[in-house]
Amino acid sequence: MRTAIRILLGLVAGVLIGAFGTAIHRTLIGNFTLHDAVGRGFPVGLLVALALLVSAGLFIRAAAGFNMFAAFGIGWILMVWLFSIPNHGGDVLIVDPRESIPWAVAGLIWTYLGTLLLVIIALLPLRWFSPKAGGHTGGAVPDGAAGPDGVSRHSALGALVTQTQNPENRDGAVEVSRD
Questions:
Q1: Would you kindly state where each structural domain of the chain is located, as residue ranges?
Q2: What gap in Å lies between CA 63 and CA 1, rounded to an integer?
């Protein structure tokens, strides 16, 4: 049940990011008018859309795992595909580059670079998203392992295990006593 909810939430997040990114990917800032479409302007919408896609993808992969990330990717791809199909009036949000409109290249970049970025995020090593990779994060310490303060903890009933070094032993052996 919990996995199904995560997958559904990932799908919804992908649909929302895909719809929002598709709506803003053509936004240019600068010397640009709709009737004088010669391609002048900075593609801020494309950069914001790609940054949003990458940050949401990384967050979902790190926080909820690969299943939710896969659903996120599927939702994003579905929305981008749906917005590239002409509607009844012939309008599309992702323009065919053969139309020679400057933002048509932005549509290609949004579609193909976005897909490539999702594939790259999917192929990142699992250890980058694991809390154990960077050391101890403050959670439970395995039985007999030392915590961040160098003191071993015993997992059964939370009994404290102290370590004292024997001054007569030069090899650094540790004596363990349970109080």
A1: 2-129, 138-179
A2: 18
pLDDT digits (tens, 9 = 90+) for 87-127: 777 666 666 666 656 567 788 888 999 999 999 999 999 88
Helices (DSSP H) in the chain: which residue ranges? 2-24, 44-64, 66-83, 103-108, 114-123
Measured at the CA of 94, the angle between CA 88 and CA 99, to 5 degrees, comes to: 85
Helix (H) or strand (E) holding 98: none
Please tell me what DSSP assigns to residue 110: I
Amino acid at 176: V
In tens, the pLDDT along 132-161 reads: 644 444 444 454 555 555 554 443 333 333
Q: Classify the C-alpha dihedral 79-80-84-89 as positive or negative.
A: positive
User: Collapsing DSSP states into helix, strand and coil, what is residue 57?
Assistant: helix
Q: Long-range contacts for 98-102 (Cβ within 8 Å, ≥24 apart)?
A: 101/37, 102/28, 102/37, 102/38, 102/39
71: helix, coil or strand? helix
Geometric angle at alpha carbon 79, from 76 and 80, rounded to 5° = 85
Residue pair 25/106 in contact (Cβ under 8 Å)? The answer is yes
